[in-house]
Specification:
Layout lengths: L17 E2 L3 E7 L5 E11 L3 E6 L8 E7 L8 E12 L7 E7 L19 H24 L2 H5 L7 H15 L11 H18 L2 H14 L15 H5 L1
Helix pairs in contact: 1-4, 3-4
C-alpha cells in the first residue's frame, strides 16, 4: 500500500524551478520489485532534478535511470542516475503518482539556453565541494580504523535497528564508490570504508552478534573496527591530523 509522503520529503529548493516539458525515458524497479520502463514528460525542472507523473508506485530513496531526449534531434541523449526524493498519489489523475527525483550529479541537463542565475555553480564552489567531501571521507576512514561501529554509523549505543539501518544507508548513499566513478583516486579508500560500514551494519542489526560486540566493548573498552588499542580512543579529527 502506498501512502502519501509529507511535504518535508520533497526536493530541497536549492535552485529555481522552471515549468518545462522535456521528454525522457525512465527505467528502474517499482515498489513491488518489478523492473519497468516508461516514457514521461517533466512538469518542472531544476538544477537538482525534476518532477513528473509515473504510473508506478516507486520506492522513496530508490535509484532510477533517466534518459533525457532533447528537442534538437542531433544532440546526444543524456543518461543520468536519479534518486526518488518523494512520491504521492495524484489528487486529480487516477492511477498516477506525482514523483520528485534528485540527480546524483546536479547540473543544467535540460538544454536551457538561459537557465536561472542560481543554476550557474561557480568553479570555486565545485572546488570547495570536492575538498569538503575529501575531508568527510578522511574522517569516516579514521573512524573505520580506530572507532567503534557506533561511532562509524554515528549512532548512540542504545539505537534501535531502524536507526542503524537508516544511518547505514545514508553512509552508503554518500560514500558508495559507484557514486564517484569520476574520481579514480577515491576508489580504494571508499571500498575500504564500505567494507567497514557493512561489517558494522551486519553486526548491529543481528541481536546475538550485537550483544557479543557490546560485551567486548564493555569488557575491554578498546575494541575497534581496525585494531585493538591500549590507549584512549582518538577522535576522527585527531586521526586526520
Amino acid at each position: 500500500m502506498v501512502t502519501a509522503n509529507p511535504p518535508q520529503h520533497s526536493i530541497k529548493r536549492r535552485s529555481t524551478r522552471v515549468a518545462s516539458s522535456v521528454f525522457m525515458t525512465v527505467r528502474g524497479t517499482d515498489g513491488n520489485g518489478h523492473p519497468f520502463t516508461e516514457q514521461r514528460v517533466t512538469l518542472e525542472v531544476s538544477f537538482q532534478g525534476c518532477k513528473f507523473f509515473s504510473r508506478y508506485a516507486l520506492q522513496p530513496d530508490s535509484w532510477l535511470t533517466v534518459e533525457i531526449t532533447h528537442k534538437d534531434k542531433s544532440a546526444v541523449a543524456q543518461t543520468l542516475r536519479a534518486r526518488v526524493a518523494w512520491l504521492r498519489r495524484s489528487k486529480h489523475l487516477r492511477g498516477l503518482f506525482h514523483v520528485g527525483v534528485e540527480f546524483e550529479v546536479p547540473g543544467n541537463v535540460w538544454g536551457l539556453a538561459n537557465p536561472p542565475e542560481d543554476w550557474r555553480q561557480p568553479e570555486s564552489q565545485k572546488t570547495r565541494d570536492v575538498a569538503s567531501f575529501q575531508q568527510e571521507m578522511q574522517e569516516a576512514l579514521a573512524l573505520a580504523e580506530t572507532g567503534t561501529y557506533y561511532q562509524l554509523l554515528r549512532i548512540p549505543p542504545e539505537s534501535p535497528r531502524a536507526q542503524v539501518r537508516h544511518n547505514y544507508y545514508e553512509l552508503m548513499r554518500k560514500f558508495h564508490p559507484d557514486h564517484h566513478m569520476d574520481h579514480a583516486e577515491w576508489m580504494q579508500p571508499l571500498h575500504t570504508l564500505m567494507e567497514a560500514a557493512t561489517s558494522a551494519y551486519k553486526t548491529l542489526t543481528d541481536e546475538s552478534a550485537r550483544r557479543k560486540y557490546d560485551e567486548r566493548l564493555a569488557g575491554s573498552g578498546t575494541f575497534t573496527l581496525g585494531r585493538h588499542q591500549s590507549e584512549v580512543q582518538k577522535t576522527a579529527e585527531e586521526c586526520v591530523q
